[in-house]
Design a protein that fits this description.
Length: 282
């Protein structure tokens, strides 16, 4: 069992939890993820490691309350425990020691994943410009945390209710046009956002990394649910990623695959998980 040490509401639909998991905290690195299961009937849900504290032996996760499992997790409070918490999984983000300046871009809840990337770069002595995009002011998260690990933080909102009005790609193009030279751009968020970030950087030959979080089940590559096409080859996000070259990812195929279970995810019908035999509302 893994105890919830801290619980904090970031906005109406996003929650931060700090979990007591010393073995994972000891090895965790930016870019890796965990898979949790609330109870014996729960489904396996992957979440990127948002932060970790090796001294305290804790791992921080940030999740959006969108389905049965995240709703159930959100009913737990500090002092409660969850059944399974497995990790760290995936390949840690490679930090280029020769990089001098990197632009990290997050979209919505993707900023929870972009933050540890920016923190790792900042701690390595690399200059970090961060562009954080949200629909509106009321869903902005981690502004203080992102600001602390960025040399420049740009908040973008679709409706202009906070920061600057516009898309993250608008700001990225503006920064490039202003003469900013980036050794790398890291984009994490909705697939369509990452697709257009990669399209923005490609004409300039800027190395672009994207973090993919397709459907995952076992975290070992055996189920094949997280397969993606990268450079014309099949890769598995859970073991080969989740970071990939944004200029090589087949985003259109990935978007299509991520809609396979849309009907099941939005229905109220009860279904039985074939892996656990447990019943959950989708």
């Amino acid at each position: 069992m893994y105890k919830i040490v801290t619980k904090r509401c970031l906005n109406d639909s996003v929650t931060l939890m700090e979990i007591e998991a010393p073995h994972i905290a000891r090895k965790a690195k930016a870019g890796q993820f965990i898979i949790f299961r609330v109870d014996e009937k729960g489904e396996r849900i992957p979440l990127t490691i948002a932060d970790y504290d090796r001294e305290k032996g804790t791992v921080t996760i940030i999740f959006q309350i969108v389905g049965a499992s995240t709703k159930l997790l959100n009913t737990l409070e500090e002092g409660d425990s969850i059944l399974d918490f497995v990790g760290p999984l995936g390949v840690a983000t490679h930090i280029d020691p020769n990089a001098k300046r990197v632009c990290v871009i997050g979209g919505g809840v993707g900023n929870a994943i972009a933050y540890p990337q920016a923190k790792a770069l900042h701690n390595a002595g690399i200059q970090v410009d961060m562009i954080a995009g949200f629909r509106s002011k009321d869903i902005v998260i981690l502004e203080d945390e992102m600001g602390a690990v960025s040399d420049h933080l740009y908040i973008m909102t679709d409706d202009g209710s906070y920061g600057e009005k516009g898309l993250v790609t608008n700001k990225l193009q503006q920064l490039i046009d202003a003469g900013n030279k980036y050794d790398e751009v890291i984009a994490i968020g909705p697939i369509i956002m990452m697709k257009f970030v990669a399209a923005t950087t490609k004409p300039y030959g800027i190395k672009t990394l994207v973090s993919l979080n397709p459907i995952m089940v076992d975290g070992t590559g055996m189920c094949g649910g997280c397969r993606v096409k990268v450079g014309g080859q099949t890769k598995f996000a859970c073991v080969d990623g989740p970071d990939f070259d944004g200029h090589e990812v087949d985003f259109d195929e990935l978007m299509k695959r991520n809609t396979f279970y849309r009907e099941r995810e939005t229905t109220d019908k009860e279904h039985v998980c074939r892996l656990t035999g447990g019943k959950r509302n989708a």
